[in-house]
From TrEMBL:
Source species, domain of life: Bacteria
Record-given protein name: Uncharacterized protein
Sequence ranges assigned to domain DUF7226 in this UniProt record: 286-425
Domain called DUF6996: residue spans: 7-75
Alphabetical list of InterPro entries matching this protein: DUF6996, DUF6997, DUF7226
Length: 426
């Protein structure tokens, strides 16, 4: 697996400051932004929103890093991340106010825009069950002083961490009669999140006002707002958070019917297989989310890997999947590979949500193996066995698939994408 700039920088830092030995002796290592800046800008070298973004030496030694002052960080075997749980898969439709012209809710390109849409449409009022909420606090601010306990995965015991005026950022704060909701917003899908993004703002405002503080994580992707509400059962325990509520919303009607899918299946013109690796990217939602990010900005392989919930191998898999569908392309700039949307990819985001989903269906079913598997599904009224999918693949003239094991891995992507298509009509 190729090394990122963060991998290389931290390898030098670990060697220069003998970090692993220091952690073994003291249980932690404190490092300053000045020290980090010698090898990489500290802002970039310490931003790991997801566990998979951690540099190689951190992952191998089960380490995480947390800020403790404006320019200092502590490294240890912290249990710093939490996986997302899903309590509810239903999607609630909310009507966007017709008189609002300054927000294009069909083309949300940033976290701040997603928060504004959620507020003016009434999504936040519905989720908080409070029609009197108003925006009050946001932006960067100081954490003040506090201490907390966090699980150490090496000793399986809680250790104390002291924080003094670390910088925090709140994407959106909304106050009602009885509570203040603090929102961390993302426009990218991930498996986990850094608890600090909720905990540090929670500790700051929990000490400032008497009202209850409601830590909220909001994810916007492909027309869906997903809100997660957490509660810290013990104010001084970083790992005491539990999910208390989760709900999904959309501002667009996209009632895809099974007949819409069957119509595309029967009418689409199957194309010759491209000379691009056959997809090994099981999560279609993640692929669509990657396209959303590329619609806003072209991204290097390094940028995708270090900012999205991908490792380098997954970056290759998902960008290749986009290339296979004809919606992503790449170019070389100096020493970097830069990924960007094709004209076909850009056109997707000029469509309403229903047409966009159906266009994705068409792009998938243009390919023989996917087309044949879905036809077989409708014929037998269940997903074909993996062995049957492999046989279909072997007759579809796929590019560079040799071993039986590779066929089986790629067959998983076919069944996953077909399931995504079928779920559109549920």
């Amino acid at each position: 697996m190729s090394e990122t700039k963060n991998d290389l920088a931290w390898s030098k830092l670990f060697t220069k400051y003998n970090i692993l030995n220091e952690i073994e002796k003291k249980g932690f290592f404190e490092i300053s932004s000045i020290q980090i800046n010698e090898f990489r800008e500290a802002r970039l070298a310490t931003k790991f929103d997801h566990k998979i973004n951690l540099p190689k030496l951190f992952r191998e030694n089960h380490l995480s890093i947390l800020p403790v002052t404006r320019g200092n960080y502590v490294i240890s075997q912290f249990e710093a991340y939490k996986e997302f749980d899903e309590m509810n898969t239903e999607v609630t439709n909310i009507v966007f106010p017709e008189y609002i012209e300054s927000i294009d809710y069909k083309n949300i390109t940033s976290e701040s825009m997603a928060i504004n849409c959620a507020f003016v449409s009434g999504i936040l009022s519905d989720f908080f069950q409070d029609d009197k909420i108003l925006p009050t606090v946001n932006g960067r601010m100081s954490s003040d002083k506090f201490s907390f306990y966090i699980n150490n995965t090496n000793t399986n015991k809680s250790v104390e961490v002291k924080v003094s005026n670390s910088q925090i950022e709140i994407d959106g704060g909304f106050e009602g009669k009885e509570s203040l909701a603090l929102i961390e917003a993302k426009n990218s899908i991930s498996d986990d999140f850094l608890i600090r993004q909720l905990y540090y703002p929670y500790r700051l405002w929990n000490s400032k006002i008497a009202k209850a503080i409601r830590p909220i994580f909001m994810v916007y992707s492909n027309g869906i707002f997903t809100l997660y509400e957490y509660e810290f059962l013990d104010t001084c325990n970083y790992n005491s958070l539990i999910l208390t509520k989760q709900k999904n919303y959309t501002l667009e009607q996209f009632d895809v019917k099974l007949d819409d899918i069957k119509s595309i299946l029967n009418e689409v013109q199957v194309i010759e297989e491209p000379r691009i690796p056959f997809p090994q990217a099981d999560n279609m939602k993640r692929l669509i989310n990657l396209l959303e990010l590329l619609y806003t900005n072209d991204m290097t392989k390094e940028e995708i890997t270090t900012t999205y919930d991908f490792d380098p191998r997954q970056t290759n898999y998902y960008t290749d999947a986009g290339r296979y569908l004809g919606v992503i392309d790449k170019r070389r700039e100096n020493e970097n590979i830069v990924y960007f949307l094709t004209d076909e990819g850009k056109r997707l985001f000029n469509m309403n949500l229903k047409l966009r989903q159906l266009k994705f269906v068409e792009l998938i079913l243009k390919h023989s193996a996917f087309n044949k598997v879905l036809k077989e599904y409708f014929k037998v009224e269940k997903m074909p066995e993996k062995s049957d999918i492999v046989e279909i693949m072997k007759k579809s003239n796929l590019y560079r698939i040799g071993s039986e094991e590779t066929f089986k891995r790629r067959a998983q992507t076919i069944s996953s994408w077909i399931n995504w298509i079928l779920e559109l009509a549920k």
